[in-house]
Structures are given as C-alpha cells and as structure tokens.
Amino acid sequence: METIVVIGAVLGLVRVGGMSLAGPAWMYKWFRPKRPDKTKRIVRRLQFTLTYSRRMVVWYAVKPLRVPAIFAFMFWCFSEGRFRWEPVAGFAITYLAIIAGATAFGLFKHYRLKLVGYAAHEAAHRLPVAQAQALLLPFAHNAKGDLITPAIGAMRDLGTPEAIEALQKLEYRNALGNAPLTLAANNAQRDLNRLALRETLPLGVSRMAKLSFEHEQIYRRIQKHRMAKYSHENQKGMDEVIAQMDEIVFSQLPLRRSFPAVYCLDCYSRGERMTYESWDWVRCTACKEATGMHAGVKHVIGQIGAQTDWQLENGVLRLSLWDDAARKARPAQIDSLELVGGHDLQYDWAVGAVVQVLHNRTADTNLRIPVHLSNTPALDANSLRLLETLNAGMRNTNKIVV
Known about the structure:
Distance between the termini: 108 Å
C-alpha cells in the first residue's frame, strides 16, 4: 500500500514539475488537425480553449492517471490473487491531491497562459477577420487577471477598428489596478498607429523561408520524441522562431488587409500572398521582397507625359513610364496606359519605347490594356499602330480621325 502511494506521489510531482516548467507542446499538434473538416475543427478547439482554459489545464494534469492506475490495479490484483480497491484508491487520491495543491498555489499559471496565448495567436492569424473577431472580441471583453496579456496580444495582431476599441477598454479597465497591463495595451495601440501612419515600414520577408524551415524542424522534434515535449530548449527555440515570424507578419498588417490592392514601387509589380501554417505575408512578384510594397493600390495607370514620378490618390496610382531626359522607358505592370499631351517631349519616340517594354515585360503575347489620350498629343501613324497592339479599339475610344 505504501509503495503504490509513493509511486502516485512521485508521478504527481513529476507531472507538476513538467507542466510548471514547460509549456503545453502538444498544442502545436492539437491546432493542426489533418482531417477534411479541419477548419471547423480548429474553430471549435480554439473556442473551447479560450473559454475553458482552466478545465483544459486540469484535464491535461490528470490525463496520465489512467495508464498508471491500470498498471497499479493489475499489479495488486494479480500479486495477491484477489480484488482490492485500497491500493488503486490510494494511488489516485495521492496523485489528485498533488495536482489540486499545485492548482491552488498557481503552479500551472505559466502553462495556462502559454496555452491561451497560443490559441489567441492562432485565432488572430489563421481565421478570416470576421470569424476571428467573433471569437476574440468576447474573449478580450471578458478577460481578467493573467488572461488580459494574451487578449492584448490578440487584439494587436487583429488590428481592426473593433480590436483597437477593445484595447482602449482594456487600457481603461486596468488604468488604476495594473500598470504593466495598461502599458502593454498602450504600446499595442501605439504599434497599430505607427503602422497606419507608415512610420513603421514592412520588414523584409526573405527570412521567412528560413524561419518556416526552423519552425517545422522544431515541431517535428517535439512530436517525434516524447520527452522533447517537456524540453525547455525546444520550447525556447519554438518561441523565438514564432516571435520573429510574428514581427515580420505584423509589420505587414496594412498590406495583408489591402491585398490584392498592393503594389511594389521598387520594381513596379503587383504582389502575391505567401502562406505557412497560420502565418501569411505579401511580397512582390518580381523582387520577392516587401520593403517597397504600398497598400491601397487598386488601379495602376501608366503615363507618358506625366509631370510627377508617381502619385497615389483614392486607390489610383499614376506612374510615369517615360524619362524624356534619359530617353528611357520604365518597365511596369499597369492596368491602363494614358498619354498626356501638351508637353515638350517626343511622343512618338516615347510611345515606341514604352510599348516595346510593356510587351517584353510579359510572356503574354496577347497583351491588352486600355489606352487613353489626354490633351490630344501629336502622334504619327506608326505610333497609333503601336498603341493598337495594346488596344485594337483605341482609335474609336479616343475619337481619333486619320
């Protein structure tokens, strides 16, 4: 009897030590289901975690009780040849008493914060904005105590007007009671304001491939080796990789919200969306970077005869395609072409160079884009024929009579 009670005590202490020193590594697998209905399953699991985190911690703490209890029952049953409840009850009571004591003294607080923080992070990154708001806003409004920290992080990652309002309420609620939480909510709002004002520019995304590989390698080690689930080294490595990826993705919040209305002013190309697990980011289709990307570009008008290099207004980017001083055309991905007359430049030369560059830039042999003429620039017959390779009906559209 004494032996089995000691075993229960030792296993309970080991469980408490493992959970209090390391985060719940199994959460990486729990939020990555591979079944066909994985999206619905993820939503259900995220909602359950954010709502019943305390129950989940207790459940995971007592989960190992099943296998040792069965072995203890078999040992005592077969050793004495008759059924006895006392050893099994002694083992279970001892184990549960240690778990209850650890819960009462808050030894699982780190474990719970890690679990809830990861669930809030996954909801903000993995789900569509409307679905993430429906899940996270009630969580933020009801957050108390230690759960306010992951709520602030989730609202910052979400970055919607409703999330900013929730941050303001969290800051006001803790203004007198908890200075660190008030400061965290204020810093989150400051970060979002800096993004909105373009004081914080998008970070380079070239590191994302390496970080994604490192994340996958650590995840495989955690899942392959049972003891690695409680390895502080693996947990620390995973946290560092996630923090770096979060920093890059957060700096792209305006770009991600605006996609596909984004444009790179370094190489004059549209953007593309890249995805790994719950992270998604935007990069230029040409240079594969994001430092030159601008949000809110719905339509790009390439201009010949423009007086400014580029101008973005009401979602329309007007981009000069011709440098008359250097006699050089700018290769750019555009939605329409506009010739602005009334300026002292050689329009026929400019048209020939620009049309050739536009055809050379794309592999599409049937490139077709609208062509508009403003202020009736003087064009010869050859320039008109070149423009018709882009838009066969441009003479009728612009009422050109030859």
